[in-house]
Amino acid sequence: MNESSPAETWLRTVVQGLSSDDFSLSHDVSFAGQEFMAVAHRSRFEVTKLGNSETFFVFGGFQACDGDSVRWFSSLAFNYAKKSKSFPLPCGLLESVFCFAVCVVEALDESTADSVRSVMPPKHWAAAEIPIVYDSVAKGSCASLKGRHCGALFTTRASGAR
Predict the structure, then answer these.
(1) What residues contact 114, with CB distance under 8 A and at least 6 apart?
(2) Per-residue pLDDT tens for 90-126?
(3) What is the residue extent of each domain of the chain?
(4) Sign of dihedral through CA atoms 56, 57, 59, 64?
């Protein structure tokens, strides 16, 4: 019998939740020489966004990470989302992109968690890049708490709550 790691079990649960929320899923996605564990993508018209909104969840596995590697992964995931969006118009012209870059780690140290919580994510025109770190052993996550509520959205989705 093949036993799943805590990270695989958690990812499977999150991906099932995203799938039930109309996200299309891809596993083992390669981009710019890197491999993402999974990518969830949804594109739809949203009145509250005044146009088409594309949401990406990009999951990457790490043994450990620090604030710099979280920001690097977030930037890579955001670049992937911008290149993979399905709507042809540029962001800001009836189009927005939201990218949740999820670093799944085996051990999250407090200094990395503090770095993620305290550093404002990069600003983009009609787009958002939201770094998140999930500790698969402690089963906890952290997201930037500076200026955005997106971490709460991810935590709600990841827990299965609606």
Answers:
(1) none
(2) 888 889 999 999 999 888 888 888 888 888 888 898 9
(3) 6-145
(4) positive
